[in-house]
């Protein structure tokens, strides 16, 4: 559970964001691994966090999810990774990479339809991951029974 601090304790030392902002990691390997998200369900609609992510705020004509999906595409990640600065494990995506990115913004209804399709497909992918994990546990249990070992926990 998140703790609470007085606003004066966090202003200046943490990155500020608000409801529906897209947060994108700026350091390696987090950026390449797709660490990003949309800030949702924030107490009082605001939050503060590490200085190791960028805050991308959508305008009225752009859905936050549209930005999120754009900024997590393999194409964008490849372009941004190629422009990282720093050495070794301390490489960062420069702010200019995000500021200079040209993004396609269809009308809002089209964005909504595409985002809904992506989210429906993602739900199917997640469901299949859960199903695979369940069957892997069943396989482990069957092998344990055949070999006379103890039952693996977590299967029905």
What general outline do the C-alpha atoms trace?
A: extended
Helix content: 40-55%
Main sheet: strand order: 3-2-5
Derived structural class: alpha+beta
Biggest β-sheet, characterized?
3 strands, antiparallel
> Total helix count?
5
pLDDT < 50 stretches: none
Rg (CA only): 21 Å
What's the end-to-end separation, in Å? 31 Å
Oligomer state of the chains in this structure: single chain
Give a quick rundown of the structure.
It contains five helices and five strands. It has 156 residues and is an alpha+beta fold.
Q: What would you note in describing this structure?
A:
With 156 residues, the chain is an alpha+beta fold. Helix content is 42%, strand content 12%. The chain has five helices and five strands, in the order αβββββαααα. It has helices at residues 7-10, 64-71, 74-82, 95-100, 108-146, and strands spanning 15-18, 22-25, 36-38, 46-49, 53-56. The strands form two sheets. It has a three-stranded antiparallel β-sheet with strand order 3-2-5, covered by helices on one side. A two-stranded antiparallel sheet has the order 1-4. The longest helix is centred in the last third of the chain and has 39 residues, at 108-146. It is extended and about 60 Å long.
Describe the secondary-structure layout.
Blueprint lengths: L6 H4 L4 E4 L3 E4 L10 E3 L7 E4 L3 E4 L7 H8 L2 H9 L12 H6 L7 H39 L10
Antiparallel strand pairs: 1-4, 2-3, 2-5
